[in-house]
User: Which sequence fits this backbone?
């Protein structure tokens, strides 16, 4: 099973290439002692809003496809890690390499994890809009392009996500993936 997992981690490699990260290089910003070197390294990872938007859309597609494959092929009740949780490890590694941030938020269901509760004003607004059927929401703030994209929760997933033995409404259910990419001032 681990060998098959490696196939799907290639998505993270593709993403890191998109955001101009040399995964073979050491992280000089993590080892820099001079504050100007740290600032310079952070600034070099910034892209224009247009580039960030394109990257976020592609990253959303890759992450969603990876999540779907993991659910389908590897998640079998109590014998595996929950796929969304496994993806969070990929998010952390990508953040370490590129300063790109990604996180799950609940949209119109109770969060399965306290860490999936929308926190910022943007996340709360995005959850509301996505919960009402909007496919994505975006904003540029605090030096980041932020995009929240809908993750539909299908019929095979709804019993865990809405609570066992509950009869969910017929309204479509969504989570969301928030991707934040550092942007330049253009």
Assistant:
């Amino acid at each position: 099973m681990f060998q098959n997992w490696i196939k799907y981690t290639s998505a993270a490699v593709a993403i890191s290439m998109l955001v101009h990260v040399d995964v073979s290089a050491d992280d000089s910003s993590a080892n820099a002692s001079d504050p100007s070197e740290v600032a310079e390294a952070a600034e070099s990872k910034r892209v224009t809003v247009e580039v960030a938007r394109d990257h976020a859309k592609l990253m959303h597609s890759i992450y969603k496809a990876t999540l779907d494959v993991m659910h389908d092929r590897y998640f079998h009740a109590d014998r595996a890690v929950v796929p969304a949780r496994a993806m969070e490890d990929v998010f952390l590694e990508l953040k370490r390499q590129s300063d790109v941030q990604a996180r799950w938020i609940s949209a119109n269901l109770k969060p399965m994890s306290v860490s999936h509760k929308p926190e910022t004003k943007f996340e709360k607004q995005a959850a509301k809009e996505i919960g009402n059927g909007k496919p994505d929401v975006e904003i540029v703030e605090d030096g980041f392009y932020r995009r929240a994209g809908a993750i539909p929760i299908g019929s095979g997933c709804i019993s865990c996500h809405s609570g066992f033995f509950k009869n969910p409404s017929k309204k479509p259910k969504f989570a969301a993936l928030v991707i934040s990419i550092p942007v330049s001032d253009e």
